[in-house]
Write a structure and sequence with these properties.
PTS lactose/cellobiose transporter subunit IIA, mainly alpha, elongated, Methane Monooxygenase Hydroxylase, Chain G, domain 1
């Protein structure tokens, strides 16, 4: 995979993860807690895929094959970090809605 493909893969999986996290909050708000947890799990799988691709960049750099840092690469990293943060917050929201509904 070239750098552009890697970047787009990170952005795609990160975007999917963030969407799943948003849907998880909405499901929990609608008292569909099991669905909310399924969506959190789905988001975590998407993030894992993005992380694997990111790790390939890091490993290549450790081997001396440094990728050029472009605005697109920075953008992909931004998407990934925001998706991770959003997923973590969504998990907290789901747990909060779950406790409120008991």
């Amino acid at each position: 995979m070239n750098v552009e493909q890697i970047v787009m893969t990170i952005i795609t999986h990160s975007g999917n993860a963030k969407s799943d996290a948003v849907e998880a909050i909405q499901a929990a708000k609608a008292k569909n807690i099991s669905t909310a947890y399924e969506l959190i799990t789905k988001a975590e799988k998407e993030l894992l895929e993005a992380h694997h691709v990111q790790t390939s960049l890091i490993q290549n750099e450790a081997r001396g094959n440094r990728a050029e840092v472009t605005l697109l690469l920075v953008h992909a990293q931004d998407h990934l970090m925001n998706a991770i943060t959003f997923k973590d917050l969504a998990k907290e929201f789901v747990e909060l809605y779950e406790s409120m509904n008991q």
